[in-house]
Protein backbone atom coordinates (compact mmCIF):
# COMPACT_ATOMS: atom_id res chain seq x y z
CA UNK A 1 0.00 0.00 0.00
CA UNK A 2 1.38 3.42 -0.94
CA UNK A 3 1.81 6.18 1.65
CA UNK A 4 -1.06 8.15 0.10
CA UNK A 5 -3.38 5.12 0.17
CA UNK A 6 -2.47 4.44 3.81
CA UNK A 7 -3.32 8.02 4.78
CA UNK A 8 -6.68 7.80 3.02
CA UNK A 9 -7.53 4.78 5.18
CA UNK A 10 -7.65 7.08 8.20
CA UNK A 11 -11.07 8.07 6.84
CA UNK A 12 -12.24 4.70 5.52
CA UNK A 13 -15.81 3.37 5.60
CA UNK A 14 -15.22 1.70 8.95
CA UNK A 15 -14.18 5.03 10.42
CA UNK A 16 -17.35 6.71 9.14
CA UNK A 17 -19.41 3.97 10.78
CA UNK A 18 -17.49 4.41 14.02
CA UNK A 19 -18.13 8.17 14.04
CA UNK A 20 -21.82 7.54 13.32
CA UNK A 21 -22.04 5.08 16.22
CA UNK A 22 -20.30 7.41 18.67
CA UNK A 23 -22.34 10.43 17.58
CA UNK A 24 -25.53 8.50 18.21
CA UNK A 25 -24.20 7.50 21.63
CA UNK A 26 -23.91 11.16 22.69
CA UNK A 27 -26.93 12.34 20.66
CA UNK A 28 -29.57 9.57 20.42
CA UNK A 29 -31.62 11.48 17.84
CA UNK A 30 -28.72 11.28 15.34
CA UNK A 31 -29.76 9.62 12.06
CA UNK A 32 -26.87 7.25 11.40
CA UNK A 33 -28.38 5.81 8.22
CA UNK A 34 -28.84 9.24 6.70
CA UNK A 35 -25.27 10.22 7.64
CA UNK A 36 -23.77 7.10 6.05
CA UNK A 37 -25.95 7.37 2.96
CA UNK A 38 -24.69 10.93 2.47
CA UNK A 39 -21.01 10.16 3.05
CA UNK A 40 -20.04 6.66 1.88
CA UNK A 41 -20.93 6.74 -1.88
CA UNK A 42 -17.82 7.45 -3.96
CA UNK A 43 -15.53 7.48 -0.92
CA UNK A 44 -12.82 5.44 -2.66
CA UNK A 45 -12.22 8.19 -5.22
CA UNK A 46 -11.55 10.88 -2.58
CA UNK A 47 -8.22 11.95 -1.06
CA UNK A 48 -7.69 12.21 2.68
CA UNK A 49 -8.62 15.89 3.04
CA UNK A 50 -11.62 15.43 0.75
CA UNK A 51 -12.78 12.54 2.95
CA UNK A 52 -12.46 14.69 6.05
CA UNK A 53 -14.52 17.40 4.37
CA UNK A 54 -17.12 14.78 3.33
CA UNK A 55 -17.45 13.74 6.98
CA UNK A 56 -17.85 17.34 8.16
CA UNK A 57 -20.52 17.98 5.52
CA UNK A 58 -22.29 14.76 6.50
CA UNK A 59 -22.36 15.81 10.14
CA UNK A 60 -23.72 19.19 9.14
CA UNK A 61 -26.51 17.51 7.19
CA UNK A 62 -27.57 15.37 10.15
CA UNK A 63 -26.82 17.37 13.30
CA UNK A 64 -29.19 20.09 14.57
CA UNK A 65 -29.34 23.22 12.44
CA UNK A 66 -28.54 25.36 15.47
CA UNK A 67 -24.74 25.76 15.22
CA UNK A 68 -24.15 26.16 18.96
CA UNK A 69 -26.19 23.04 19.75
CA UNK A 70 -24.32 21.08 17.07
CA UNK A 71 -20.95 22.13 18.51
CA UNK A 72 -22.13 21.06 21.96
CA UNK A 73 -22.71 17.58 20.56
CA UNK A 74 -19.28 17.61 18.87
CA UNK A 75 -17.66 18.53 22.19
CA UNK A 76 -19.16 15.37 23.69
CA UNK A 77 -18.03 13.39 20.66
CA UNK A 78 -14.40 14.58 20.71
CA UNK A 79 -13.01 12.20 23.39
CA UNK A 80 -14.85 9.22 21.88
CA UNK A 81 -13.28 9.26 18.40
CA UNK A 82 -10.66 6.56 18.17
CA UNK A 83 -7.84 8.29 16.27
CA UNK A 84 -6.28 11.73 16.71
CA UNK A 85 -6.23 12.81 13.07
CA UNK A 86 -9.92 12.00 12.68
CA UNK A 87 -10.80 14.62 15.29
CA UNK A 88 -9.67 17.30 12.81
CA UNK A 89 -13.15 16.87 11.35
CA UNK A 90 -14.54 18.59 14.45
CA UNK A 91 -12.52 21.76 13.92
CA UNK A 92 -13.18 21.53 10.17
CA UNK A 93 -16.92 21.67 11.00
CA UNK A 94 -16.33 24.86 12.99
CA UNK A 95 -14.20 26.34 10.22
CA UNK A 96 -16.92 25.69 7.65
CA UNK A 97 -20.06 26.62 9.51
CA UNK A 98 -19.16 28.85 12.45
CA UNK A 99 -17.94 32.06 10.86
CA UNK A 100 -21.04 34.00 11.95
CA UNK A 101 -20.27 33.01 15.56
CA UNK A 102 -16.72 34.35 15.77
CA UNK A 103 -15.92 34.32 19.51
CA UNK A 104 -17.89 31.11 20.14
CA UNK A 105 -16.18 29.36 17.24
CA UNK A 106 -12.65 30.33 18.26
CA UNK A 107 -13.37 29.06 21.75
CA UNK A 108 -14.54 25.78 20.19
CA UNK A 109 -11.34 25.53 18.14
CA UNK A 110 -9.31 26.03 21.31
CA UNK A 111 -11.30 23.22 22.94
CA UNK A 112 -10.85 20.81 20.01
CA UNK A 113 -7.15 21.37 19.38
CA UNK A 114 -5.85 19.02 22.13
CA UNK A 115 -7.87 16.20 20.53
CA UNK A 116 -6.71 16.96 16.99
CA UNK A 117 -5.12 20.21 15.92
CA UNK A 118 -7.35 23.08 14.76
CA UNK A 119 -4.51 24.44 12.60
CA UNK A 120 -6.45 24.14 9.33
CA UNK A 121 -9.78 25.46 10.58
CA UNK A 122 -8.35 28.57 12.26
CA UNK A 123 -7.12 29.73 8.86
CA UNK A 124 -10.71 30.30 7.77
CA UNK A 125 -10.97 32.92 10.53
CA UNK A 126 -7.57 34.43 9.72
CA UNK A 127 -8.81 34.88 6.17
CA UNK A 128 -12.09 36.33 7.47
CA UNK A 129 -10.59 38.80 9.96
CA UNK A 130 -6.80 38.63 10.29
CA UNK A 131 -6.28 41.21 13.03
CA UNK A 132 -9.12 39.99 15.25
CA UNK A 133 -8.07 36.34 14.96
CA UNK A 134 -4.39 37.06 15.60
CA UNK A 135 -5.35 39.01 18.73
CA UNK A 136 -6.97 35.84 20.10
CA UNK A 137 -4.06 33.67 18.98
CA UNK A 138 -1.62 35.97 20.76
CA UNK A 139 -3.45 35.15 24.01
CA UNK A 140 -3.29 31.46 23.09
CA UNK A 141 0.49 31.73 22.79
CA UNK A 142 0.56 32.27 26.58
CA UNK A 143 -1.81 29.39 27.41
CA UNK A 144 -0.82 26.63 29.85
CA UNK A 145 -1.76 23.90 27.34
CA UNK A 146 1.03 23.14 24.85
CA UNK A 147 -1.54 22.17 22.21
CA UNK A 148 -3.11 25.62 22.40
CA UNK A 149 0.28 27.34 22.30
CA UNK A 150 1.26 25.30 19.26
CA UNK A 151 -2.00 26.25 17.55
CA UNK A 152 -1.06 29.92 18.03
CA UNK A 153 2.05 29.36 15.89
CA UNK A 154 1.03 26.57 13.53
CA UNK A 155 -2.32 28.03 12.56
CA UNK A 156 -0.84 31.28 11.21
CA UNK A 157 2.12 29.78 9.35
CA UNK A 158 2.16 31.61 6.00
CA UNK A 159 2.66 28.41 3.99
CA UNK A 160 1.14 25.63 6.11
CA UNK A 161 1.29 22.30 4.21
CA UNK A 162 -2.08 20.86 3.13
CA UNK A 163 -3.74 24.27 3.47
CA UNK A 164 -4.11 27.51 1.55
CA UNK A 165 -1.47 30.24 1.80
CA UNK A 166 -2.17 33.24 4.00
CA UNK A 167 -1.25 35.80 1.36
CA UNK A 168 -1.35 38.80 3.71
CA UNK A 169 1.22 37.12 5.98
CA UNK A 170 3.32 35.99 3.03
CA UNK A 171 3.59 39.66 2.04
CA UNK A 172 4.13 40.94 5.58
CA UNK A 173 4.89 38.52 8.45
CA UNK A 174 5.12 41.22 11.12
CA UNK A 175 1.57 40.71 12.52
CA UNK A 176 2.72 37.32 13.91
CA UNK A 177 5.85 38.73 15.59
CA UNK A 178 4.38 38.90 19.12
CA UNK A 179 3.21 35.29 18.90
CA UNK A 180 6.65 34.09 17.80
CA UNK A 181 8.38 36.18 20.47
CA UNK A 182 6.11 34.72 23.16
CA UNK A 183 7.07 31.19 22.08
CA UNK A 184 10.78 31.73 21.40
CA UNK A 185 11.86 29.73 24.49
CA UNK A 186 8.89 27.41 24.89
CA UNK A 187 9.60 24.36 27.08
CA UNK A 188 7.61 22.06 24.74
CA UNK A 189 9.43 20.52 21.78
CA UNK A 190 6.02 20.17 20.10
CA UNK A 191 5.65 23.95 20.21
CA UNK A 192 9.27 24.72 19.34
CA UNK A 193 9.04 22.62 16.16
CA UNK A 194 6.06 24.69 15.06
CA UNK A 195 7.81 28.00 15.75
CA UNK A 196 10.87 26.83 13.81
CA UNK A 197 8.73 25.71 10.87
CA UNK A 198 6.80 28.98 10.94
CA UNK A 199 10.02 31.00 10.79
CA UNK A 200 11.44 28.72 8.10
CA UNK A 201 8.32 29.47 6.02
CA UNK A 202 9.05 33.18 6.35
CA UNK A 203 12.72 32.81 5.31
CA UNK A 204 11.51 31.91 1.82
CA UNK A 205 10.13 35.44 1.37
CA UNK A 206 11.70 37.60 4.10
CA UNK A 207 15.05 36.12 5.21
CA UNK A 208 16.32 39.44 6.61
CA UNK A 209 13.19 39.84 8.76
CA UNK A 210 13.75 36.38 10.30
CA UNK A 211 17.48 36.94 10.85
CA UNK A 212 16.89 40.33 12.47
CA UNK A 213 14.34 38.79 14.83
CA UNK A 214 16.42 35.74 15.76
CA UNK A 215 19.57 37.80 16.30
CA UNK A 216 17.64 39.93 18.80
CA UNK A 217 16.77 36.86 20.90
CA UNK A 218 18.84 35.44 23.77
CA UNK A 219 20.54 32.57 21.95
CA UNK A 220 22.25 31.38 25.13
CA UNK A 221 18.87 29.91 26.06
CA UNK A 222 18.98 26.29 24.78
CA UNK A 223 15.31 26.27 23.73
CA UNK A 224 15.73 29.49 21.77
CA UNK A 225 18.97 28.25 20.19
CA UNK A 226 17.17 25.06 19.10
CA UNK A 227 14.43 27.08 17.41
CA UNK A 228 16.97 29.35 15.71
CA UNK A 229 18.96 26.46 14.28
CA UNK A 230 15.93 24.69 12.85
CA UNK A 231 14.25 27.90 11.68
CA UNK A 232 17.31 28.80 9.62
CA UNK A 233 17.81 25.37 8.05
CA UNK A 234 16.87 26.48 4.53
CA UNK A 235 19.19 29.50 4.70
CA UNK A 236 21.97 27.36 6.17
CA UNK A 237 21.66 24.90 3.29
CA UNK A 238 22.00 27.86 0.92
CA UNK A 239 25.21 28.90 2.66
CA UNK A 240 23.79 32.17 4.01
CA UNK A 241 26.59 33.74 6.06
CA UNK A 242 24.33 35.40 8.66
CA UNK A 243 22.40 32.19 9.23
CA UNK A 244 25.62 30.20 9.58
CA UNK A 245 26.96 32.78 12.02
CA UNK A 246 23.91 32.30 14.26
CA UNK A 247 24.96 28.67 14.82
CA UNK A 248 28.64 29.59 15.15
CA UNK A 249 29.75 28.57 11.66
CA UNK A 250 29.89 31.91 9.89
CA UNK A 251 33.59 31.97 9.04
CA UNK A 252 35.04 30.74 5.76
CA UNK A 253 36.38 27.22 6.38
CA UNK A 254 40.11 26.59 6.28
CA UNK A 255 40.04 22.92 5.37
CA UNK A 256 41.06 20.47 2.69
CA UNK A 257 39.03 17.49 1.48
CA UNK A 258 41.02 14.29 0.91
CA UNK A 259 40.11 10.92 -0.63
CA UNK A 260 36.64 11.98 -1.79
CA UNK A 261 34.97 8.85 -3.17
CA UNK A 262 31.54 7.67 -4.30
CA UNK A 263 30.93 3.93 -4.31
CA UNK A 264 29.78 2.41 -6.56
CA UNK A 265 30.31 4.89 -9.38
CA UNK A 266 27.70 3.14 -11.53
CA UNK A 267 24.39 2.53 -9.79
CA UNK A 268 21.00 1.22 -10.84
CA UNK A 269 17.84 2.94 -9.58
CA UNK A 270 16.83 1.32 -6.30
CA UNK A 271 20.40 0.74 -5.14
CA UNK A 272 22.51 2.87 -2.77
CA UNK A 273 25.71 4.86 -2.92
CA UNK A 274 28.25 5.59 -0.20
CA UNK A 275 29.91 8.99 -0.06
CA UNK A 276 33.14 9.25 1.95
CA UNK A 277 36.06 11.63 2.48
CA UNK A 278 38.55 12.87 5.05
CA UNK A 279 38.50 16.46 6.25
CA UNK A 280 41.81 18.12 7.24
CA UNK A 281 42.02 21.40 9.15
CA UNK A 282 44.48 24.00 7.80
CA UNK A 283 43.82 26.39 10.72
CA UNK A 284 45.81 27.01 13.88
CA UNK A 285 42.60 27.06 15.96
CA UNK A 286 39.45 24.99 16.16
CA UNK A 287 36.67 25.60 13.62
CA UNK A 288 32.91 25.16 13.84
CA UNK A 289 31.89 23.49 10.57
CA UNK A 290 28.57 22.67 8.90
CA UNK A 291 29.15 19.97 6.32
CA UNK A 292 26.47 19.38 3.66
CA UNK A 293 26.37 17.75 0.27
CA UNK A 294 24.39 18.62 -2.85
CA UNK A 295 23.27 16.10 -5.44
CA UNK A 296 22.69 17.56 -8.89
CA UNK A 297 19.74 15.41 -9.99
CA UNK A 298 19.28 14.89 -13.71
CA UNK A 299 15.86 16.04 -14.90
CA UNK A 300 13.80 14.61 -17.74
CA UNK A 301 15.06 17.39 -20.02
CA UNK A 302 18.67 16.46 -19.31
CA UNK A 303 19.31 19.59 -17.24
CA UNK A 304 20.17 19.21 -13.55
CA UNK A 305 18.70 20.55 -10.31
CA UNK A 306 20.64 20.51 -7.03
CA UNK A 307 19.20 19.38 -3.69
CA UNK A 308 21.21 19.97 -0.52
CA UNK A 309 21.32 17.34 2.24
CA UNK A 310 22.59 17.74 5.80
CA UNK A 311 25.69 15.67 6.49
CA UNK A 312 27.43 16.65 9.73
CA UNK A 313 28.10 19.49 12.15
CA UNK A 314 31.36 19.36 14.04
CA UNK A 315 34.05 21.32 15.79
CA UNK A 316 37.33 20.45 14.06
CA UNK A 317 40.43 20.87 16.26
CA UNK A 318 43.39 22.94 15.09
CA UNK A 319 45.31 20.95 12.44
CA UNK A 320 42.93 18.08 13.17
CA UNK A 321 41.09 15.76 10.82
CA UNK A 322 37.81 13.86 10.63
CA UNK A 323 36.53 11.03 8.47
CA UNK A 324 32.99 11.45 7.17
CA UNK A 325 30.73 9.06 5.27
CA UNK A 326 27.09 8.75 4.31
CA UNK A 327 25.06 6.03 2.61
CA UNK A 328 22.13 7.17 0.49
CA UNK A 329 19.45 5.21 -1.29
CA UNK A 330 18.78 6.24 -4.88
CA UNK A 331 15.11 5.50 -5.45
CA UNK A 332 12.00 7.27 -6.67
CA UNK A 333 9.69 9.12 -4.27
CA UNK A 334 6.34 10.79 -4.80
CA UNK A 335 8.25 14.09 -4.71
CA UNK A 336 11.19 13.07 -6.90
CA UNK A 337 11.54 10.91 -9.99
CA UNK A 338 15.07 9.96 -10.99
CA UNK A 339 16.38 10.02 -14.53
CA UNK A 340 19.48 8.28 -15.92
CA UNK A 341 22.72 10.16 -16.41
CA UNK A 342 25.75 11.60 -14.64
CA UNK A 343 24.89 13.00 -11.18
CA UNK A 344 27.39 15.40 -9.65
CA UNK A 345 27.84 15.58 -5.87
CA UNK A 346 29.30 18.71 -4.22
CA UNK A 347 30.76 18.85 -0.71
CA UNK A 348 29.69 22.12 0.94
CA UNK A 349 31.38 23.33 4.13
CA UNK A 350 30.01 26.48 5.77
CA UNK A 351 28.39 27.15 2.41
CA UNK A 352 31.68 26.88 0.46
CA UNK A 353 32.24 24.34 -2.33
CA UNK A 354 35.15 22.18 -1.14
CA UNK A 355 35.01 19.08 -3.35
CA UNK A 356 33.17 17.47 -6.25
CA UNK A 357 32.67 13.93 -7.55
CA UNK A 358 29.98 12.10 -9.50
CA UNK A 359 28.16 8.82 -10.11
CA UNK A 360 26.32 7.46 -13.12
CA UNK A 361 22.69 6.36 -12.70
CA UNK A 362 20.88 3.84 -14.88
CA UNK A 363 17.29 2.61 -14.67
CA UNK A 364 16.77 -1.14 -14.27
CA UNK A 365 16.19 -3.12 -17.45
Summarize the SSE layout with pairings.
Blueprint: H1 3-8, H2 13-26, H3 32-39, H4 48-62, H5 67-77, H6 88-97, H7 102-112, H8 122-128, H9 130-140, H10 146-154, H11 167-171, H12 177-182, H13 189-203, H14 207-215, H15 222-231, H16 233-237, H17 241-246, E1 255-263, E2 266-268, E3 272-281, E4 287-298, E5 304-316, E6 321-329, E7 341-349, E8 352-362
Parallel strand pairs: 2-8
Antiparallel strand pairs: 1-3, 3-6, 4-5, 4-7, 7-8
Helix pairs in contact: 2-3, 2-5, 3-4, 4-6, 6-7, 8-9, 9-10, 10-13, 13-14, 13-15
Note down, in words, how this protein is organized.
By secondary structure, the protein is an alpha+beta fold. It folds into two domains: 208 residues; 108 residues, Immunoglobulins (Immunoglobulin-like), CATH 2.60.40.10. A five-stranded mixed sheet has the order 2-8-7-4-5, with no helix packed on it. It has a three-stranded antiparallel sheet with strand order 1-3-6, with no helix packed on it. The chain is globular, with a radius of gyration of 25 Å.
Report a brief summary of the structure.
With 365 residues, the chain is α+β, with helices and mostly antiparallel strands. The protein contains 17 helices and eight strands.
Structural class: alpha+beta
Overall radius of gyration: 25 Å
Poorly predicted ranges: none
Globally, the shape reads globular
Strand arrangement, major sheet: 2-8-7-4-5
CA-to-CA gap between the ends?
24 Å
Count of DSSP H/I helices: 17
Summed over residues and divided by their number, the pLDDT gives a mean of: 95
Q: Major sheet: size, sense and barrel closure? A: 5 strands, mixed
User: What is the percentage of strand-forming residues?
Assistant: 15-25%
Q: Level of helix content?
A: 40-55%
The domain tally reads: 2
Would you count the extended β strands for me?
Answer: 8
Amino acid sequence: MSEEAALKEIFNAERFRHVAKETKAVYPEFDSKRFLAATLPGLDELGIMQRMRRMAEGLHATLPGDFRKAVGILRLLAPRINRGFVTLVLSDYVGLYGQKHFAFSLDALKFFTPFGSSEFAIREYLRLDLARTLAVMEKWSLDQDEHVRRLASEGCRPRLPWSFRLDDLVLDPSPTAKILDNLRADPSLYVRKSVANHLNDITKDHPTWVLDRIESWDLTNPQTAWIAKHALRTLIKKGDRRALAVIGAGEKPRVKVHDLAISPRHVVLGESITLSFRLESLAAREQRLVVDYAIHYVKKSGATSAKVFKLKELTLPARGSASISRRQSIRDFTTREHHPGLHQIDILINGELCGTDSFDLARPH
